[in-house]
Specification:
Order of helices and strands: HHHHHHHHHHHHHHHHHHHH
Distance between the termini: 54 Å
Helix content: over 70%
Oligomer: single chain
Shape: globular
């Protein structure tokens, strides 16, 4: 069985002998990780789509729902644990363990009957699902040359959008055909199927039997020498002392509330404020995530365009983030327009803008830190992002009944501008430093 193959099986081992050589294997690998991200985000989005039915059936209030979503955010704030495990245990084994955990926990949601039960399960789900982004960034760091990391990060982050796109129609279908409990079981089973594929096909770049010598040379030649992995385990304290870390972590703290709002609150907003029924939610709630898919690639395209014109990698990333932040100001008008369809169009603009800047800043972990630190850095930055999402979600849950959704959409349009200012202020360009030293 595939699970019996050791993490770093040599090329001549029986476990790897059946794998043929593949050209551009790195893109197959990022595709496999992206599929995992699709299922990860599909699983976490199930709650938001099922919320109108689930809250009504179980008598859960909006305030109690905010505690449920907050429990998930508390769990996912433990991403540094996931990143550290992935950096020390290994990507193949570590990611498989986390994926099995989130799949089983998702299925257990079908047994919950109270907001307290959901809150406990969401907390554990957040912890397990927090592994996806550190795993994706570690894959990008070790499998891709520098010039391709932006696109690889964009492809991986498309998984988040696709999962969120699939959630409304799939979950609504499961609710209408069976019930909301079946929706959680269905997404959990999909996660277990992916684990089988992951264990069967993933190996490290150094030991993958399908890797050609030519591709291995391309990857090695395109990676920065100063970011090579070292034998020592990553030091969390050392990372936290670096301005480079805070330069990407604080913008994430300010940016991530947008994604949480789209995933957890927009279905309720469309239901409570715009009068959409469950079928209308299924028809429209996925659209911002399709726009987000385009945003995943917009950031890398902008950065590459600028690099070809002599802009350094870090400055190109910062400019891409800033352009996304400017577009995010469109979110300020979601609650102001009379037409529900205009509101959806602005939400789509927000999804595009958010992923343009989010993919950019997330990828910068692999541009600024050693490869044995990338998952830990991504986990720590993810913790900051989810802390921002948690606080924002609590504010929505506590105040939306009194002030409505409008102030929160306005806040989303402002926060990323502040994030852009911090990105330019705190992150130092290694290329500019090297030029100055020369």
């Amino acid at each position: 069985m595939a699970v019996a193959v050791p993490e770093r099986a040599p090329e001549g081992s029986p476990g790897g002998a059946a794998m043929p050589k593949l050209k551009a294997l790195r893109w197959w690998i990022i595709g496999l990780v992206t599929l995992g991200a699709v299922i990860n985000y599909l699983t976490r989005s199930t709650m938001g789509v099922a919320a109108p039915t689930l809250l009504k059936e179980l008598g859960i209030s909006v305030t109690e729902y905010s505690w449920i979503t907050s429990a998930f955010q508390l769990g996912i704030m433990l991403q540094p644990i996931c990143g550290y495990v992935l950096d020390t245990l290994g990507l193949r084994t570590g990611f498989a363990v986390f994926a099995v955990a989130w799949s089983l926990i998702a299925m257990a949601h079908g047994l919950a009957n109270s907001w307290q039960g959901f809150a406990v399960l969401r907390g554990f789900l957040g912890l397990a699902e927090g592994s996806a982004q550190p795993a994706g960034m570690k894959t990008v760091a070790i499998w891709f040359p520098a010039k391709e990391r932006g696109f690889a990060g964009g492809v991986f982050n498309i998984g988040a959008s696709i999962g969120s796109v699939l959630a409304p129609p799939l979950v609504v279908w499961a609710v209408l055909v069976w019930n909301w409990r079946a929706a959680f079981v269905l997404t959990g089973v999909m996660g277990l199927v992916w684990v089988v594929l992951w264990l069967a096909f993933y190996r490290s770049p150094e030991q993958h039997p399908s890797m050609t010598d030519a591709e291995r040379a391309v990857i090695a030649a395109g990676q920065e020498a100063h970011l090579e992995a070292v034998a020592a385990r990553p030091s969390v304290l050392s990372i936290l002392k670096q301005g480079q870390f805070w330069g990407i972590a604080l913008p994430r703290f300010l940016a991530d509330p947008t994604w949480g709002t789209l995933a957890f609150w927009v279905p309720l907003y469309l239901s409570q404020t715009r009068g959409f029924d469950l079928k209308q939610i299924a028809l429209f709630a996925w659209m911002p995530f399709v726009a987000a898919d385009l945003g995943c690639m917009a950031g890398p395209v902008i950065a590459l365009f600028l690099q070809k014109r002599g802009v350094t990698l870090i400055n190109a990333r910062r400019i891409a983030f800033t352009l996304g932040a400017v577009l995010m100001t469109g979110m300020m008008f979601v609650g102001k327009v009379e037409s529900a369809y205009a509101a959806i169009a602005l939400l789509c603009l927000g999804g595009f803008a958010h992923q343009t800047l989010s993919v950019t800043v997330i990828t910068m972990a692999s541009d600024l830190f050693r490869r044995n630190e990338v998952a830990t850095v991504a986990g720590l930055a993810g913790m900051m992002g989810n802390l921002g999402l948690l606080l924002f979600s609590l504010l929505i849950g506590g105040l939306v009944a009194k002030v409505g959704y409008d102030p929160f959409f306005i806040a989303l349009g402002v926060l990323d501008i502040l994030g852009a200012i911090l990105l330019w202020t705190l992150v130092k360009d290694p290329a500019a430093r090297a030029k100055a030293a020369a």
